[in-house]
Amino acid sequence: MRKQIVAGNWKMNTTLPEGLALAKGIDEALRGKTVHCDVILGTPFTHLASVAAAIDTTRIGVAAENCADKEKGAFTGEVSAAMIASTGARYVIIGHSERRAYYHETPEILKEKVRLALAHGLTPIFCVGEVLAEREAGKHFDVVDAQIRESLFDLTADDFGRLILAYEPVWAIGTGKTATAAQAQEIHAHIRQTIAAKYGATVADATSILYGGSCNAGNARELFANPDVDGGLIGGASLEVEKFLPIIEAF
Ligand code: 3PY
């Protein structure tokens, strides 16, 4: 069976002491509890090593929110996949809509980031999703298909099998709007079919597809109850222990 996953995406929030307190709070709250999903904390680069050292990483994974599209060298300010892996982080979020929109990350750049992340043993959490105008024009299926095809379909089946996907409708990010459970199920099932058509049903059935975009304690249970929604990539609600825990417990 594929993994069920709840992953936080802290974005550019928390100072190091605040982030450490949050990570330790989640770690303590989960200690001794039976948890029915994998838990991942996506933190700013500056926090990765300290968070990984402060929590039990056999129970909680740590993710970076981005990585460079270059192996190493004269790229001032960039952080490579190898550097991320050396902190103890095991995951990296790639292709979040904020990176695509604000930092002009193209499908080619994202493809290279995925390649480098895999080469350094990291699990990419690859994000796809349409903007409101695309959904209103009925183009959402084509948009996510193109995002997957252009950045991921050069991978071997083995490498594709190492990915986590996240569907995040851009119109639901930071807006308080959420896709309905039915809308999420419909497009997750479509994404799984797209994967199956390329890599076969075994790979598609084993791929975890998370829902992201204003997922919170109030809607997580209904979203996660869908057969093709394998968990969530959580923005704002991952920044407080009391808001994040009920999402983990929604499984
Ligand atoms: C959100 O929930 O707003 C996100 O962008 C999660 O990645």
TrEMBL record:
EC number: 5.3.1.1
Entry keyword set: Cytoplasm, Gluconeogenesis, Glycolysis, Isomerase
Active site: H96, E168
Subcellular location field: Cytoplasm
Domain of life from the UniProt record: Bacteria
Pathway(s): Carbohydrate biosynthesis; gluconeogenesis; Carbohydrate degradation; glycolysis; D-glyceraldehyde 3-phosphate from glycerone phosphate: step 1/1
BP GO terms, sorted: gluconeogenesis; glyceraldehyde-3-phosphate biosynthetic process; glycerol catabolic process; glycolytic process
Gene Ontology CC annotations of this record: cytosol
PANTHER family: TRIOSEPHOSPHATE ISOMERASE (PTHR21139)
Purpose of the protein: Involved in the gluconeogenesis. Catalyzes stereospecifically the conversion of dihydroxyacetone phosphate (DHAP) to D-glyceraldehyde-3-phosphate (G3P).
Family the UniProt entry places it in: Belongs to the triosephosphate isomerase family.
Name assigned to this protein: Triosephosphate isomerase
Organism: Tannerella sp. oral taxon BU063 isolate Cell 6/7/9
